[in-house]
Protein 1
Amino acid sequence: MKISQILAYTEAITSFATIAHAQAISFNFDDNTVVGGTLVLLESGTGPTNDFGGDRFDEQTSAGFQIQGITGIGTLGVTATALVDDLNVLSTGLADGSSGYGAAGEGTSFIFDKDVVITAMDWASFSATASSDVVELLNNNVSLGNYAADTVTGSTDFTSTNPATMNIAVTAGNAFTLRWVAGDFELQGIGLTVVPEPGTYALLAGISVLGFVMLRRRSVK
C-alpha cells in the first residue's frame, strides 16, 4: 500500500470519526443564544420561531422546540414542561409561573429525543450563600440530590453556578428535571452533548472496513 493511499485512508477515517463524535451545544432562555445549532420553536403562535420569550414557548404549560443543524447529528428535539404553572421566560431566564422558581413543587422537566449528556446549567439569581438557594436535580424521576452554592457531588459541581458543571447522561425519552427546594432563582441556560445514535458508529465501522479492503486490493494488483 502506497504512503499516499495510507494518508488518504487515514484522513477519511479521521473525518468520519469527527462527524460521529458527540456534539456539544448550549442554549439560553433569556437571550435565545444557541451555540452549535439553530433554535426552532414548534408550538403554534404569532411570534418568531427563535424566541423563547414569545407566545410559542412563554406561558405554555408544555412546549416543544428543536435545535437544528447540529454537526454530525442533525436535529435534537426537546420538550419542556412546567411542573406547577407554566413556562415563564424572564429577562434573567426560565421559571415556573409568574416569577422565579420559588415555591414548593415548582420546576421544569426536559425530555430529549436523543441520548444526551447534561454538562452545564447556568443559574440566574442563584445565591452564592450556601443553602440560600437550593435546587433538586432528577434523572428519569430519580433524585440526584439537592444542590446549593458550593455543593459538589460526584461530577456535579456547584462551586460556581454561572454555570454549574456536571456529567449527567439522560436517555432519549426520559425526563431530566429541576425542582425548587429553597430560595428564588431562574435557569438561564443548559449545556449538553448530543450522543450519536448507534447506527452512526455502525456506519463508520462499515465504511472503515470497506475502505481498508478496497485499498488492500489496489495494493496487491
Protein 2
Amino acid sequence: MDPLRRQAYLQALGIPAFTRRESGQAESAVVEEVGAAAAAGAAEELAQHPGRPVADSGGAVELAGLDWLSLQERASECRACGLHEGRTQAVFSAGNPQADLMIIGEAPGADEDRLGEPFVGRAGQLLTAMLRAIGLMREQVCITNVVKCRPPGNRNPHLEEIAACRGFLQRQIALVEPRLILALGAVSAHALLDSDEPVGRLRRRTHAYGESAIPLRVSYHPAYLLRRPAEKAKAWEDLQQVAGLLG
C-alpha cells in the first residue's frame, strides 16, 4: 500500500502511526481520535461472557421463505423473548442487503433503539471510520446485530435472547449471501461460531460459517476500542485481513 494512503487510513481509524527517525529508531506520531463524539465519552466496555453453543429458536424454518422486507416486518412484530417489552422499535439492518461484506455486532443501544438503525452511536461513528480506513462506505456493506432489540441498560444479550433471534440472523445471512462476515465482539463471535474462545484468539484466523462455509473474521467491538484505544492497532490488522479477503 502507498505509504501516504496507509497514513491516511491510520489517521481515519485513530491509531498511532509510526515514522522512522534518521537514526533508524521508530517513533509514534500523535494522531487525533476519530470523531468528536467518540472522544467526548466512552461506551461501555464489551463484557466477555462464556459463549456456550446457542440452540436455534426453531424460527429458522418458519422464516426460510421470507424475502428481506417481509423478514424485516416480521422482526418488527417479534415477541419471542422479553426484549420486545422495552424496545422503541426493532433494529433490523443498515446498508446494502446484497453486500459482499456483512458486519454483525451484538445488540442495539439507546441511539440505535431510538433511530432504528444499527451502529449509529459513538461506537457506530468509530465503525464508520474503520470502514473508511479500508475504502468502504457504510452504504456498501450490510450491518446488523445478533439480536434486534435493545437489552435493558445496554447489557449483553442473554443466551435465550440470542436463541430467540437466531432465526432472523440466519435468514439475513442466507439472503445477503456475503462473501465475508465480520463478527464484532465476543457476543457476536460466540453466537456465530459456537465458541467460548476470547476474541484475542478468534481474530487471528479465518473461520467458516454455516453449510456454505462463508469466510468469517472476528475483531473487537468498536465500543471496546473506545475504552481500550491501544487495541486499535490490532483492529487495523484485522481490517487489513478483511480488505485482503475482499480483494
Protein 3
Amino acid sequence: MSEDLVLFEVEPRGLARITLNRPALHNCFNDVVIERLHGIVQEIAGRRDIRVVTIQGAGKSFSAGGDLDWMRRSGQQDHATNLAQTMVLARLFKTLNDLPQAVISLVHGNCMAGGTGLVSCSDIAIAVQDTKFALTEVRLGLSPATISPYVVAAIGARQARRYFLTAERFDGVEAARIGLVHETVADHDALLAKGEELVQALLLGAPGAIADSKLLIRRVAYQGEVGEDVMRFTAENIADRRASVEGQEGLASFFAKRKPNWVG
C-alpha cells in the first residue's frame, strides 16, 4: 500500500513527520511514492493545525533519488504518459517548496538526485557529516531537471555547474560549505536531537508570520535593483503583519512579559 511507502503522522503540538519508507531500496522514488508524497504535502498545505514538518528516511538512507527501474519503464511509455508522470514530480517539489509551514530535512546515509531536491525545497536542512550526496543524473544520460530550480537556489549557479556536470559524490561537510544543508552533526542520534531543537525553536514563532516570511523570501530572493514594486510588497507585508491578530498578540505579550498564545 502507498501508505506504507511514505509514513505520515501528526503530533498534537503541530508537528507533522514524513518518513520515506522503502529502506531496502534506500527510499528511492517511484510513481507510487511520488503520488503519496504529493498527496501528503497537499494535505499539509491546507491544515492550520500543522505548524512544522520534518522529512527523514527510514533505514540506512534519506533517499537515493529515483527508482531506476521505474524511470526506465517510464521512458519507454508514450510521451504524454511520460510527461504526465514527471509533471506530478514537478508539482510535488513546487508544493513542498511553497508550503506555508516550516520544513526541516534530516539527512543521513545516501542523498542522491531527487533526494537533494527534497532537501533543497526544505527551509532548514541538517545532515550527518558522512552523508553521501550526489546529483547523479548525467551519468545515467539524464538531467536534474525538475529539482533544478530548488537546487540552484540552494547552492547557486556556480556550484551547480560543477556538481550537475561531474555527478561526483560529496559529504555533508561539503554540502554545508556550498549551502545545500545548513549544518552537520556527528551521527544519527545527534541528527534527531538537532531536529527536535529546531522544531521547538520553530514552534515559538507565529504560524502566520512564518508563512508570510517564507513568501517574503520567495518574492525578494531573485531581485536585482530594489524597485517601487518590491518596496511596496515588503512594506505591505510588514504593515499587514503589524495589524494582524498575531502581530498585535505578539507585541502585547512582549509588553506584558508573557508567552504569546501560539506557544504551548
